[in-house]
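Handoff note, outgoing to incoming analyst
You'll be picking up this chain. Sequence as last confirmed:
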Amino acid sequence: MLVQDAGLADPRTIAQYEPVIGLEVHVQLKTRTKIFSHSTHEFGKSPNTQTDPVVLGLPGALPVLNREAVALAVRASMAINCRINRYSQFARKNYFYPDLPKGYQISQYDRPLAEHGWLDIRTENESKRIGITRLHMEEDAGKTIHDGFGDSNRYSYVDLNRAGAPLCEIVSEPDLRSADEAVAYLNELKLIIQFAGASDCDMEKGQLRCDANVSVRRTGAEKFGTRCEIKNLNSFRFVKQAIQYEIARQVAVVEDGGSIVQETRLFNTASGTTVSMRGKEDSHDYRYFPEPDLPPLVLSDEQLASVREEMPELPPAMRARFVSDYGLSDYDARVLTLTVASAHYFEQAAEASGNPKATANWVQGELMGTLNASAKDIADSPVSPSRLGELIQLIDNGTLSGKLAKQVFAKMFETGRSAGEVIESEGLRQISDSDQLEGVIHDILSRSEKQVAQYRGGKAGVLGYFVGQVMKVTRGQANPILVNQLLRKALDG
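Most recent structure output, in case you need it:
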């Protein structure tokens, strides 16, 4: 019996099943022109202004492979620990959509660029290695925009600006067992591809899109269930929601005595549900055959060595170095390497300050908090890494207290001035002159007989009152460590 939708299973029932999840991630490579032609593929241009005879599939137009796209795909392959095939081949994947003028897509099939890779992911405190089946190159299709659905006048528009953009498709093994693992894998994959410089992976611009293959089986069973593919998920939040819904739906179907239909489904973001789109194709449905207009892609050892030499440091190695060289915690290292920009900012600031741990705290705390409140990226920070390092040095040498430093930082962020300039103009330098502070303390104690008696009577907590009074008189500029020392000396004496 086939049951398309039997509602959703409850959590207790779902716990008796094991989800099996594999992801197909499409990453747009960071080239100026398309994979087989000279047209640009810049995001946000007017519709259908970035096309050419190759993209439009006009008679006599022949594809020419983009050398830079190959280099970036090789970078991505190395970054995810794939074995790169010296010999790979392009193929025609035959199907017709309005946004694919040729009626076929140039992709790779049985001879992909790279295979047998892996990524290590972490969920909470558990680490796991996820296998990667393959990375292959292909061209993107255009974009179809539907308008007026639900009304009497319904229109579909086709924009071919994206058609022919260079993609690499990264196919994982079915090693993921939860929506959380899927999101952790996507986060790590996105980060590594960005650090490798192969793509910006901007999901809002369609530079990273994900299809999720989901099936369920009874816990302990060896045989996989029938999978359904959820197409075109364009945010990590939607990936998690779609997988969780699909698991609950499939469990309900099986529990109701039905069978899962192998199909392609779409995620409705408004309702939070997956809906049937079409029957899921198998590879023979696409009638693959070698692309006759492109020769095989043959890579030499010299070409691979050249790409490998240019590979930057990747997040796993950078995290380990931050822990070993800078004495940071694993948590701090992970937060600071969430983006290429934050990692580089931290390193430059730590070099300027000479205090990596304090720098890590300032970058994660005051800097990132202020950037978030101002809706700015760290690359656009008004406080440069060297100036943040200078501010931390002023704390370390006693020129500023931590509290004063936060005031100085706020002014630096607001005005773009250096810490020294802010201190001079605002008069925010810390007071560390013992004679000056002893005079302030003497005046406060002389008019606080009651509190002095309480302290000397055993109420040590009253010391905080005196510290507050000193800070009030000095507008928060007194050195707090020195103030405590001088107060105890005066009161105990």
